[in-house]
Amino acid sequence: MKTSVAVRLAVASMAAALAACADNAAPFSPGRLWDGTTPDFRGIWQARGTAYVNLEGHAGENGIAASASAIVDPPDGKIPYKPEALAQRDENYRARASADPSLKCYQAGVPRATYLATPLQILQSPGNFAIVYQENHAFRVFHPDSRPHFDAADWWMGDTRYRWDGDTLVADVVAITDQQWLDQAGNYHSTEFHVVERYRLTSPDTLEYEARIEDPGVYSRPWTLKAVLERVKEPGARIIEDECLDDENGVRRHVSPYDPQSLLKADYSRWRTAPPP
């Protein structure tokens, strides 16, 4: 009995020591650009989860893996909607098969573009930072935070100012159109939308993304989501063309990048049911 107690105490002591070592472990230190100072985030990255379906989590269906909530605050993983705003989100959800702006080839917006199922590429030099998204040719130029935000702007990808907090890039984003959705489930915001993003390398091939969101017109309090992006390392990996075409009703729709017709951009002839006279 005494030996058993001693063993349990030794195991508990070892576990505590390992936990303390983990807590005190030095954070990952990324490589640097040629200035020797700026963290090097360059590369092609992609979120592997399915938070783009519903940030609050969803069951698996139609070949899409299930996902836990991407929302880390509040702890319940729910977006803190005001009651009247929640009713609008529920209406969006009911109409999601046709109402999602992304289906109509509008840009995904911030923060949605980051956790889509398509990759993005970070372009960088000392003092310069930009992201090119595969989805719908979207891109963002991050401006130093010494410059003021544009007033009364209304953009899909917003107006971004950034700074470095140690090895973490912190971006402040405003001027985002209220026409965008945050996911396929109809989660949305108003023109009072404000996002603070944090990008941090946790290993050579993993990039942690955090977005703190506030919108007093829609949410009862600020809330935070997190996602992890992985470096795309396949030989020859690149951002490919993502094209849209007008359908027979004049609505722009996504087409496969492997469809040769997508190179024609607006080829109405593919929708003809009879040859021209």
Structure description:
The protein has about 280 residues and is α+β, with helices and mostly antiparallel strands. The chain has helices spanning about 1-25, 85-95, 95-100, and strands spanning about 45, 70-75, 120-125, 130-135, 140-145, 160-165, 170-175, 195-205, 205-215, 225-230, 245, 250-255. It folds into 2 domains: about 45-230, no CATH class; about 245-275, no CATH class. Helices cover about 15% and strands about 25% of the residues. The strands form 2 sheets. A 9-stranded mixed beta barrel has the order 1-3-4-5-6-7-8-9-10. Strands 11-12 form a two-stranded antiparallel sheet. The model has no long low-confidence stretch (mean pLDDT about 85).
SS content category: alpha+beta
Number of strands: 12
Mean residue pLDDT: 86
Approximate strand percentage = 25-35%
- From the alpha carbons, calculate the radius of gyration and give it in angstroms: 22 Å
The N- to C-terminal Cα distance equals 97 Å
N-to-C series of helices and strands: HEEHHEEEEEEEEEE
Blueprint (SSEs and pairs):
Blueprint: H1 2-24, E1 43-47, E2 71-73, H2 83-94, H3 96-99, E3 120-125, E4 128-133, E5 139-144, E6 159-165, E7 168-174, E8 194-203, E9 206-214, E10 223-231, E11 244-246, E12 252-254
Structure described in brief:
Helices cover 14% and strands 27% of the residues.
Annotation keywords:
alpha+beta, 27% strand, 9-stranded mixed barrel, 12 strands, 277 residues
